[in-house]
Task: inverse folding
């Protein structure tokens, strides 16, 4: 894909002839391939390859066009095809809405022209599947197009294979793109622009080495692994995709296999928020089974149920924890999502779901499993969920709303940026927890671990907001020295917490200067 070969004068003349357009008055004009505008000066005429230069075929004159000097400079090493695709892709991703394979299929094929149904059934002997279709041309099958075949359904046999580990049955087939759709249940990840772009360029001149992975569900072929690769091929104009297709798999087991593959065995991991969401969906299925059992029900009992069904205890706890986190993260009233990287693709974000999980959710939610009656714990978990969302919204209003603006990058934004440096974020979130525990008069260690697992009065919420406001108004956040910046970004929470204490930010300092300390401890 490097620089194109030097063209001879006679070759340039031929390319110019192909680039000439006729106006209504029959006057001939040399026009730029990219914008169709006339090139007035001879010195502004340049030549560029339409498709990437790979192999003898793309070095033919038909693969070259006339462009103006300014566009030629802008093109760099990109072919005209790649340049136009890049512009289209930038426009596709320009808003913050998450994009998936279905969005690419809609863009390239049109609404209603993808995700088409297809009839597939297992043969009587069980080792083949049959495609039942009268669209043999669209399926690229090497069949005679007789009148009889056009009128009757054509049966095409494909070998059905079996996985020795799971017993899942699957087959390989090259599927026309109009029969594909994204598997929303098993493939929740959005597309990443940079990854899609690199794969698009690679697949313009290279083969697909491994098939995309799909499953057959309700006569639809749903793709759940290889989304970027498939989207890149569709963008590159490919009409068919090589696929491995699972035939009537156990979706629950397939979901777990896919989840583990993108977690512990990852090449490209799920976003943390999506891992949380997917574990939560597994929780839902397991919970429905557990709740039908007789006897006392609790989170602890649910963990025992899962362990008895073959799960590790740590995995069982993770399922409950993820369900709790998911209910907080996905709440539409949670203002902090606007400032998380996974939900805001359009600008630099102060936090990620991983940071939110580690610095807030783990610190402020009561760790499962609770050993109390499930009806009581459910009510308490809902109270906890609402409390944390209210707390996060107060954090947003006092540290981000009307302040975080990377495009302006002014003094106010820089204050907000310092607040969310790695070490600072970890440290003040811990300080706030201790301050809130004191406001709520929680002195027992176990009670402090369940800080929001209780009703909180309006008066206490007013005190909590006063503490949050006081914290973010401290002079340290306005200090633009390099030393301050470097210390606040240290990864050690304890080290940064000690530094904040020396700069006037500690639990006693906050509660004392706001007057809350005296209110709570003076009779």
Result:
């Amino acid at each position: 894909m490097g620089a194109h070969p030097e063209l001879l004068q006679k070759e340039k003349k031929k390319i110019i002839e192909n680039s000439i357009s006729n106006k209504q008055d029959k006057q001939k004009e040399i026009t730029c391939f990219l914008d169709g505008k006339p090139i007035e000066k001879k010195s502004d005429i340049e030549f560029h390859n339409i498709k990437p230069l790979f192999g003898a075929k793309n070095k033919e004159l038909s693969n070259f066009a006339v462009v103006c000097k300014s566009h030629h400079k802008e093109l760099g090493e990109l072919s005209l095809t790649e340049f136009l695709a890049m512009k289209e892709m930038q426009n596709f991703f320009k808003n913050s809405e998450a994009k998936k394979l279905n969005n690419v299929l809609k863009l390239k094929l049109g609404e209603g022209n993808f995700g088409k149904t297809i009839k597939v059934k297992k043969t009587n002997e069980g080792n083949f599947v049959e495609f039942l279709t009268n669209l043999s041309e669209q399926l690229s099958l090497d069949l005679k197009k007789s009148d009889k075949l056009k009128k009757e359904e054509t049966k095409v046999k494909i070998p059905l294979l079996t996985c020795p580990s799971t017993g899942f049955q699957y087959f390989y087939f090259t599927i026309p793109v109009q029969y594909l759709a994204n598997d929303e249940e098993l493939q929740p990840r959005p597309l990443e622009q940079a990854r899609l772009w690199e794969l698009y360029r690679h697949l313009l001149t290279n083969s697909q080495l491994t098939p995309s992975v799909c499953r057959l569900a309700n006569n639809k072929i749903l793709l759940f692994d290889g989304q970027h690769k498939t989207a890149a091929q569709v963008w590159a104009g490919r009409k068919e995709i090589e696929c491995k297709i699972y035939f009537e798999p156990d979706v629950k087991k397939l979901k777990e296999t896919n989840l583990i593959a993108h977690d512990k065995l990852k090449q490209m991991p799920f976003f943390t928020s999506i891992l949380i969401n997917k574990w939560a969906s597994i929780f839902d299925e397991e919970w429905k089974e557990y709740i039908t059992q007789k006897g006392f029900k609790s989170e602890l009992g649910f963990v025992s149920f899962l362990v008895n069904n073959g799960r590790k205890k740590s995995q069982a706890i993770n399922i409950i924890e993820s369900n709790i986190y998911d209910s907080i993260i996905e709440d539409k009233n949670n203002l902090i999502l606007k400032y998380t990287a996974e939900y805001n693709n359009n600008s630099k974000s102060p936090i990620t779901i991983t940071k939110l999980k580690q610095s807030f959710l783990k610190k402020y939610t009561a760790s499962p499993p609770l050993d109390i009656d499930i009806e009581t714990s459910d009510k308490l978990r809902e109270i906890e969920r609402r409390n944390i969302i209210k707390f996060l919204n107060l954090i947003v209003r006092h540290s981000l709303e009307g302040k975080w603006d990377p495009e302006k990058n002014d003094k106010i934004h820089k204050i907000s940026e310092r607040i969310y440096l790695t070490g600072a974020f970890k440290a003040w979130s811990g300080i706030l927890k201790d301050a809130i525990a004191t406001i709520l008069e929680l002195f027992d260690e176990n009670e402090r671990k369940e800080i929001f697992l209780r009703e909180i009065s309006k008066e206490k919420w007013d005190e909590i907001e006063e503490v949050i406001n006081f914290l973010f108004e401290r002079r340290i956040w306005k200090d633009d020295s390099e030393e301050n910046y470097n210390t606040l970004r240290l990864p050690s929470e304890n080290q940064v917490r000690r530094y904040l204490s020396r700069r006037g930010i500690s639990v006693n300092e906050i509660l004392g200067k706001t007057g809350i300390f005296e209110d709570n401890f003076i009779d």
User: Anything to note?
Assistant: The chain has 21 helices and 13 strands.
